[in-house]
Amino acid sequence: MNRLESLLSKIERRDAVVGVIGLGYVGLPLALLFKECGFQVVGFDVDPSKVERLHRGESYIRHIGPERVAAAFAPADGVRPIRATTDFGKLSECDAILICVPTPLGGHREPDLTYVCGTAETIASTFRPGQLVILESTTYPGTTREELLPRLEHAAGGPFACGTDFFLAFSPEREDPGNPKFDTRTIPKVVGGMDEGSLEAAVALYGSAIDTVVPVSSPEVAESAKLLENIFRAVNIALVNELKVVFDRMGIDVWEVIEAAKTKPFGYMPFYPGPGIGGHCIPLDPFYLSWKASESGSWARFIELAGEINALMPRYVVDRVALALNDAGRSMKGSKILVLGLSYKADIDDDRESPSFEVIEHLQERGAVVDYCDPHIPKAKKGRKHDLHMASVPCDADTLGQFDAVLLVTAHKEFRNPAIYAKAKLVIDTRNAVPPGAVTSGKLWKA
């Protein structure tokens, strides 16, 4: 039996050990799913506090309940738990290794593959024949072939041949935290293998846990598909953000325009304006392709323009706050402003790349005294670019009434409750989320 046949047999029998590197918003749901489908799972993370919390049955991701974590990491006697560890030497025990690490941008919006390449080096240091390695981190076309393949081919004990000694594929993550309609199992999984054997192994692994697997001809196609998905969204969000600014100057309500346009049953898909874009995908991923395009002598002008428009939205919102305060007879400097929402989208605790951070910092730069309210994030977390040293204030009418202006940035369901605006003096709504007639003692502005 050759190595491919052996691996396929292990996957079919659920005897394959699945390793997941990075236990965040992508890796943790994958680890849980494979465990729930009968596989032995080892989770790897550089953060020892995550490992400790998981083994205590605690969840650090709001939409993943502690009951599910406890059932997987601390189950009843006789059931194999997920092993979470910071010991990457245990990668040698794994038959399949899924890489779910961050792919941020550098200071000049260039791809930063530090985590991907570092992880590939770590895998190579413990590599053994017969392993399947799959990169899930969003990146530019060619990363799997150019960065992972040579490291694994020349791993310790090699050289190794891809397709016979080991197997390599790319399968982009498609997590949408907090989406009640889709989860890791039901979101179709695109898979591109380095060769036929790698594709067969990757499809077999994902097919054992995910409802629909979509094989494509190469890792580059899979890498490009993920970028296309997010570029499509980034460009259309930029378009509607630009139209918001244009229509506002013309005295036209962009939200009413969108509601009218979406009655067309064909040829139109609604996108909605906001204070900027957030999450790990849309603010970052398009620039991976524009960078790679420039390396090839092409220029992705739509991507660059969309990025420019979306990046300007936090400042536009702050300008609108200044106008609203001026209309109320106050200056920005010295005004007490409450920002509603720190997460990047409604009803989750994910604050990655949230426009709220930039909005808060721009308000502070202009002299405002700023607090925030977010029932999903009681204390602002330290990120790669921001460290607010702030904690959430209560979400009630008395608290909102203490501020000169309330700025809604994230449309949590708690912020759609009209009762909390009963004593608000001035409310600026960037999401069209404040119920009509809710601001009874003050004034409502759209931004």
Give an overview in words.
This protein has 447 residues and is an alpha/beta fold. It folds into two domains: 3-217, NAD(P)-binding Rossmann-like Domain (Rossmann fold); 303-446, NAD(P)-binding Rossmann-like Domain (Rossmann fold, 3-Layer(aba) Sandwich). It has 13 helices and 13 strands. It has helices at residues 3-13, 27-36, 48-55, 66-73, 114-125, 143-153, 196-207, 219-249, 254-261, 285-295, 301-327, 355-365, 397-400, and strands at 17-21, 40-44, 83-85, 96-99, 132-135, 167-170, 189-193, 213-216, 336-340, 369-373, 405-408, 426-429, 443-446. The strands form two sheets. It has an eight-stranded mixed beta sheet with strand order 3-2-1-4-5-6-7-8, sandwiched between helices. The protein has a five-stranded parallel beta sheet with strand order 10-9-11-12-13, with helices on one face. β5 (132-135), α6 and β6 (167-170) form a beta-alpha-beta unit. The longest helix has 31 residues, at 219-249. The model has no long low-confidence stretch (mean pLDDT 93).
